Amino acid sequence: HIATSLPLPSERDHFRPRIDLIVFMIDIKSKYSLKNVEASLAHVDASFFLGKVCFLVTGVGRVNACSIETNAVCKLGEAYCSPVLFCELELEGIRVATAQRLLRMLQICAGHIPGVSALSFVSLMRTFDDD
């Protein structure tokens, strides 16, 4: 399911399936995209940030067209303890690899991979530059 922003409309709550993973898409060429994601974050329950949220940054192949610094997005990922994935949707190989990575993350978050929880998966993806 795709939403352009949060909160989701409440009139269809009883039809909505369980949410296993939230992927916030940020177009690096649009400051509005980052502002929309930042505004939407306030509507996500804190428990989702324990392995069920990630940030997907698109448009990274065009450095000269960037309106957002990648450092700002990385700080957002750090602040919410959530992984940040960078991709260029115009390149098929990267698009396919990113889709496969997101699908694997979804399988883990939904509990379909025995022995791996969403929380343990995210802890494996963290970098430990602060040490």
TrEMBL record:
InterPro entries to which the protein is assigned, alphabetical: Centromere_Cenp-M, P-loop_NTPase
Keyword Manganese: no
Tree of life domain: Eukaryota
One GO CC annotation: nucleus
Cellular compartment(s): Chromosome, Centromere; Nucleus
Any one Pfam family match given in the protein's UniProt record, by short name: CENP-M
Source organism of the structure: Vireo altiloquus
Main location (coarse class): nucleus
Identification of the protein by name: Centromere protein M
Keywords assigned by UniProt, alphabetized: Centromere, Chromosome, Nucleus
